[in-house]
Amino acid sequence: MGSVTLDDVATQAGVSAKTVSRVVNGERSVRRETRQRVLDAIQQLDYRPNLMARGLSGSHAYTIGLVYDNPNAYYIIAMQQGALTACDDLHFGLQMRPCDSRSPGLAEGLRDFVRRSRLSGLVLTTPVSERTASLRKLSTYHIPCVRIVSAAREPRGGFPCVYVDDRDAAHAITTHLLQLGHVRIGFLRGGKHHHASAQRLTGYKDALRDYGIPVRKELMIDGDYVFDDGFRGARRLLDLAEPPTAIFGCNDEIAAGALAATQSMGLHVPYDVSIAGFEDSPFSRHSWPPLTTARQRADTIVERAARMLIAGISGHDVKNKGFNPELVVRGSTAPPRPKSRRRKRG
Amino acid sequence: MGSVTLDDVATQAGVSAKTVSRVVNGERSVRRETRQRVLDAIQQLDYRPNLMARGLSGSHAYTIGLVYDNPNAYYIIAMQQGALTACDDLHFGLQMRPCDSRSPGLAEGLRDFVRRSRLSGLVLTTPVSERTASLRKLSTYHIPCVRIVSAAREPRGGFPCVYVDDRDAAHAITTHLLQLGHVRIGFLRGGKHHHASAQRLTGYKDALRDYGIPVRKELMIDGDYVFDDGFRGARRLLDLAEPPTAIFGCNDEIAAGALAATQSMGLHVPYDVSIAGFEDSPFSRHSWPPLTTARQRADTIVERAARMLIAGISGHDVKNKGFNPELVVRGSTAPPRPKSRRRKRG
DNA sequence: GGTTGCATTGACAGCGCTGTCAACACCAAT
DNA sequence: ATTGGTGTTGACAGCGCTGTCAATGCAACC
């Protein structure tokens, strides 16, 4: 019943409690042979450190915070899952916290969150990780943080990062559509406050330029990362005098909305219109036809960020890490129908 | 920097630390006048108990667990929000935990979860709260729990409950459709393992019977709580020789799928087909037209359950509490079109 | 008046861990 | 042999709180 404590392990290994503590916390000054004896005892007794005791005693709580502000519930769930995996594995606690990334008091709010629970550090997800002014303020509080950001290459300075090359992935998706033969490609933007959205737009534009195709303003529609904006945006695109033959939604939920809108106009996907998303969320798999998208494993990315954060807190060196979302071609994209044979039903 | 402790409050109020502890924990044996003095001091100093210290010292961690197993991310997020509100307010910690409600080791898994973090208790959400065998086993572990269940009246025995009358709400929605003049009403079922789904089906059937309308098997389609099952189910319904004039989806995501399917067939909602959902999730508001639905505030319901749980842990009496989802009529339902003038486009 | 019982309060130990500091062994340099 | 550094280990206090138990005050009882 009463669980195994440091002292139990110490007795078993024939050392002092403090030495066990040293081993558990990966401190260097323990002889190899002693360390092994302790590790064996830990394994034998299935010892797990008591978070409360560690937190009460130590200078921090051995618990990290996951901070997010995102309208996309599926994305949040995936991020939580990733953070949970890392924390369970490394015997850290996890506090999950929604927040308002546009609040002027963001930095202070995060500071209070950390102080109240004596958190060891924070994983800052987009778009919280992009509020540079707040981040600057946050850095004066000496709170260990890892940011997840949208960038093609390793950002310089500031907090350690996990960076995701949204531009490149959007470039790949757009290129996929271009290679299929599409020329008029619509783009449905997401979250104005999300850099990722801007990066994906850049990738789209760059790909068009690479193919010598002019970027048309009327083909790029603003909106947020929600189903309905995808629905309305796609309607606007398809109501154009010369509608696009393909639509690239800034995330899967937008793309799912676009899919519904397209079908609501009696058009067939992918024969009349191709549709691509971004994220590989359940939306992209559950829709019909399933969406071509860029696989961006939010769980993997956040897990990595959490591991980096904990490594940093434990005094290890941390190297920034980049991810490249991977193109996933599914049934929602196909070559455009020859113009003469296209018709709009409904 | 170093935060306010019990001793600080005790000094300020001129009492011992233990007395402050008594006030904070709502114990009875404190004179009214003393209690007030302590409360004032707490307010003045903005004291918040240290969870780690409480947990280390006390017999439990002053932290509750929220357990869920649901494919609907929006629903999970809402539940988390509600639990967070209650815990923040009552100075309890919160651990959120996805799990597999169909695992045979469910009870043991929950027990280990509780033991490892010395949790004070669990809020069991559907469908975890419906695994009667596991629940019976769980009850032998003496873990305080509050269940959220789908039931018309207060369940007898077992753990305390928050019960939601899904049957009644589904009855109300169906009646709404019947009153509009619909006779052939399709029903898209959700999660086979969710009692709520069965309850809603019952409400649907009961309402039909109340109106003397036969329940037709071909109008009730199985599926899970996901967009795509709504899409496919609606297609099947509308492809019937004599299709329904209204479709009732077991939750909003299913209904959103049905909406997309209906529109994909060139039919107009609500003029050709009425569609209703259940839950009042973002889906129902973001779709076009917005969905008629039953407002079931998962956040409010879970907040209530969490408050009940914490009250029980603190030794107070707990009374079960019922919720009745409330009919919300929006643009997706209207009287059926006279049959002669109905046409199917596309 | 002395005793009992209840309501109210406080002293104290200790939850399981980490930070600090001191102790010890050992080797290289003096 | 002595000193000083380095690597390794342990003793001990104490983090902020609660559980236990004892002390206090006061009213009610024989």
Question: What does this 3D model show about the protein?
Answer:
Two copies of one chain form a homodimer. Chain A has 346 residues and is of the alpha/beta class. Chain A contains 13 helices and twelve strands. The first copy, chain A, has helices at 6-13, 17-24, 32-45, 51-57, 73-89, 106-117, 132-139, 166-180, 195-210, 227-238, 252-264, 282-286, 298-313; strands at residues 63-68, 93-98, 121-124, 145-150, 161-164, 185-188, 220-221, 246-249, 274-276, 293-295, 321-323, 326-328. Chain A has a six-stranded parallel beta sheet with strand order 2-1-3-4-5-11. In chain A, helix 7 links the parallel strand 3 and strand 4 (145-150). In chain A, helix 1 (6-13) packs across helix 2 and helix 8 runs parallel beside helix 9. The termini of chain A are far apart. In chain A, 51% of the residues are buried. Chain A binds chain B through residues 3, 48, 50-53, 55-56, 61, 71, 73-74, 76-77, 80-81, 84, 96, 98, 115-118, 226-228, 231-232, 256, 259-260, 263-264, 266, 282-283, 286-288, 345-346, and chain B through 3, 48, 50-53, 55-56, 61, 71, 73-74, 76-77, 80-81, 84, 96, 98, 115-118, 226-228, 231-232, 256, 259-261, 263-264, 266, 282-283, 286-288, 345-346. Chain A binds a DNA duplex (30 and 30 nucleotides) through residues 5-7, 15-19, 21-22, 24-25, 28-31, 34, 49-50, 52-59.
- Report, as a whole number of angstroms, the end-to-end distance of chain A: 68 Å
Major beta-sheet overview of chain A:
6 strands, parallel
Shape of chain A: elongated
Strand content range of chain A? 5-15%
The strand line-up of the biggest sheet of chain A is 2-1-3-4-5-11
Q: In sequence order, what are the helices and strands of chain A, one letter per element?
A: HHHHEHEHEHEEHEHEHEHEHEHEE
The structural class of chain A is alpha/beta
Could you give the count of β-strands of chain A? 12
